[in-house]
Amino acid sequence: MAEIIPPLNSQTLRRMTTGEKQVARRLKSLLEDDYLVWYDIPVGRKRRYPDFIILHPSRGLLFLEVKDWKRQTLKKISKTDVTLLTDCGQVTKLHPLDQARQYTYSVINVLQRDTRLVESSGQYRGNLIIPYGWGVI
Predict the structure, then answer these.
(1) How far apart, in Å, are the Cα atoms of 18 and each of 5, 13, 23, 43, 111?
(2) Measured between alpha carbons, how far is 76 from 122 in angstroms, rounded to an integer?
(3) How much is the pLDDT for 127?
């Protein structure tokens, strides 16, 4: 069972959307003990809040953005943005994959400042030594 930070107590669950609760419970129960999962923590200078950051010692980092959108509220999707029908009318937002990518690179840029976390030689010199990725649920 993965460790989720902060723990899934009533206070944390109240802050989560329905989709985030479902994802958090699945991550906790389905991932192995050596996974750490952070929910809604600030990252980078702009203090952005990815929904989930998942760390495994040998598999690396995964940044996940969770959206509770319904098919009928999605009006338009492009590579860069999404138009949604909300209670306030149509709203255009950054595409969630771009959002997750930006979170990822905010963290990666900070981690790459630590020389112990970057390749010191060869073809990947200067790159982070751990794999990373991002996605949307």
Answers:
(1) 18, 9, 9, 23, 31
(2) 44
(3) 92
User: Using an 8 Å Cβ cutoff, are 100 and 134 in contact?
Assistant: yes
Q: In what order do the strands lie in the sheet with 74-77?
A: 74-77, 81-86, 89-94
Residues 78-121 have pLDDT tens digits of 999 999 998 889 999 999 999 999 999 999 998 999 999 999 99
3 state SS of 24:
helix
Give the H or E element holding residue 111.
helix 96-111
Element (H, E) at 22: helix 18-30
The distance of Cα 76 from the centroid of its chain, to the nearest Å, equals 23
Residue 44 has pLDDT above 80, yes or no: no
Residues 6+ apart with CB under 8 A from 33: 1, 2, 3
The backbone torsions φ and ψ at residue 64, rounded to the nearest 5 degrees and listed phi first, read: -120, 135
Strand partners of residue 76: 83
